[in-house]
Design goal:
This protein has 147 residues and is of the alpha+beta class. It contains four helices and seven strands; from the N terminus they run E-H-H-E-E-E-H-E-H-E-E. Helix 1 (13-23) packs across helix 2 (30-38). The radius of gyration is 15 Å and the shape is globular. This is [Ribosomal protein bS18]-alanine N-acetyltransferase.
Length: 147
């Protein structure tokens, strides 16, 4: 299985949207991905296998911080290092853009994601009450230093 990792192009939006639909309950729209890929402050990395997008991750550049928007991998391709490689690529891109840290919000009940981010040097530094609605809080996690 050969998987390539590269920056997202506008024509990748349908594939990224398909992964989003497979991964998340509160999905973005196709238009939001089409807009984001054209935004000079957004960076997305895609994982591609046999011409199909099977995973992606994105962040917004906010001054000298990279704010992760989403990282998702199609269910049948999880737990084999694809998410890790996507995050590694995102860290490299963010570092090249001069970011000093990376942050995100994660559902307080998404234990797998919390463990993944902690393994990658992210720490919980706050809580956003009811961030996901229905009383579900979001942990604010940070990784200071990207090198």
């Amino acid at each position: 299985m050969t998987i390539s990792y590269r920056l997202m192009k506008p024509q990748d939006a349908p594939g990224v949207f398909r992964v989003d639909q497979d991964c998340f309950k509160h999905n973005w729209t196709m238009e939001s991905y089409q807009d984001d890929v054209r935004n000079m402050l957004s960076s997305y990395v895609v994982a591609e296998k046999d011409g199909e997008i099977i995973g992606f991750g994105g962040f917004w550049l906010i001054i000298d911080e990279a704010h992760i928007t989403n990282i998702g991998v199609m269910e049948e391709h999880r737990y084999c290092g694809i998410g890790q490689q996507i995050l590694d690529e995102m860290l490299t891109v963010a570092n090249h853009k001069g970011c000093l840290g990376m942050t995100l919000e994660v559902r307080e009940d998404n234990y797998a994601a919390i463990k993944f981010y902690e393994k990658n040097g992210f720490v919980k530094e706050g809580v956003r009450k009811n961030y996901y609605g229905n009383g579900v809080n979001g942990f604010i996690m940070w990784r200071h230093g990207l090198g």
